[in-house]
Amino acid sequence: MADFNVTKPIDTRTNTELVNATKSRAIVSNEVLYYFLLFNLWGVGQGVCLFGIMTNILNIIVFVKQGVKDTVNISLLGLATSDLGSQITLCYANISFCPPFMALDLPFVPNDLMYIISWCHIMFTRISTWITAYITLERCLCVTAPLRVKNVFTPKRTVFYLQFVYIIMLASVLPCFYTTRPAIVFDPVRNITLLGITFLENRETIESITFTTNNAIPTIALCLVVICTIILVSTLRQKSKWRRQATTSNVVKMVVLISAIFIICYFPGTVVFIYMLTDQDMRIDGVRRNPEICYLL
Fold this sequence. Notes:
Elements (H helix, E strand, L loop, with lengths): L14 H9 L6 H11 L3 H23 L4 H26 L2 H4 L7 H35 L4 H4 L2 H24 L1 E8 L4 E8 L3 H36 L1 H6 L3 H30 L14 H4 L1
């Protein structure tokens, strides 16, 4: 049985030295970052997150009551479920940045738990990405090839696709969970030992592959959604008579709206992630981070 080094590297530098080591590489000042987090995470962002949790719970209840025999309802139920998971995990991530939460005498390291929660959030967002791509593709074919779409997108195939996406996205983040181990660690800020996590010595190699994979996957899905949405909008404009008479036109418009919101919300993050693939210093543990923000909270 192979021996693994699961201890975190010991850094003998003081907090002030760690701050000075990365301060010159940070893109924005701590003050700017603090107020950005204050507005985005603890204010408006958390309000939107809580609203998303409530609406997704209601959506799940509605879709279950409507039945899961239609491909659209099945897909939207899967989307509401993955969105609920992403909002719940994001809610904790927002709370973990809140100053009163950081000031609590917790028996664990908040940042270590947030590391696990963050990967769970990433998994759910990737699931939502590919479900949105599936829904958009289905509606696109419904407009461009209405006589064939029912034979291609059946309820059974839709259920299989959702199961496949959930399994694949879970598998994509499992390597990061594999590199972590629960352990009792020393917190230099509070000068006590707490429950946290440690990493295998080959963590960087494994996480580098996982990071690349988890950013390539949504980028491909985003491109698919953009292409299908453009085709949908273009086809709807050309077939004005069909748009007025077809019973599925409202569903198509709803999918176009969902796709448009998805593109607007995911495009900035996709651009950032693509840049992070080329510049490792921009990653969450890179030298351009603002580690001292933790001491300001």
